[in-house]
Amino acid sequence: MLSLLMTLSLFSLAGIPPVAGFFGKFFLFTAAASKGYYILVLIAVLNATISLYYYLRVIKAMFIEKNDEPVAWFRSTLAMRISLVMCVAGVFIIGFASGIFEYIRTISQLFLN
């Protein structure tokens, strides 16, 4: 279960949709492109693509590669489980509710102008 949560977190960092990291990167890249920073956006997209390779290596190590000394079994507390569920819910809710961010951006544009 913890490996699945780690995979979800790594996918969010990599910017895989529909999790929060995708929309964070998407809004950042579109904001930079709208200001004319195309070279910077290209470099950022290339770096995000390269980072995906390293995130997938961690996932491969968790699920595919066998280890001589596996992690000992442990029991998580109720507080740990609740906090992990809240984190996963946050990653998905922010990912699916990305329209809220667009609304906040338009409101902030009104105050800046």
What does this 3D model show about the protein?
The protein is mostly helical and 113 residues long. It has one domain. Helix content is 78%, strand content 0%. Helix 1 (2-14) packs antiparallel against helix 3, helix 2 runs antiparallel to helix 3 and helix 2 runs parallel beside helix 4 (78-96).
Topology:
Layout: H1 2-14, H2 20-34, H3 38-63, H4 78-96, H5 98-112
Q: Can you summarize this structure?
A:
The chain has 113 residues and is mainly alpha-helical. Helix content is 78%, strand content 0%.
Number of domains: 1
Q: Give the terminus-to-terminus CA distance.
A: 48 Å
The beta-strand count equals 0
The major β-sheet equals: none
Question: Keywords, please?
Answer:
mainly alpha
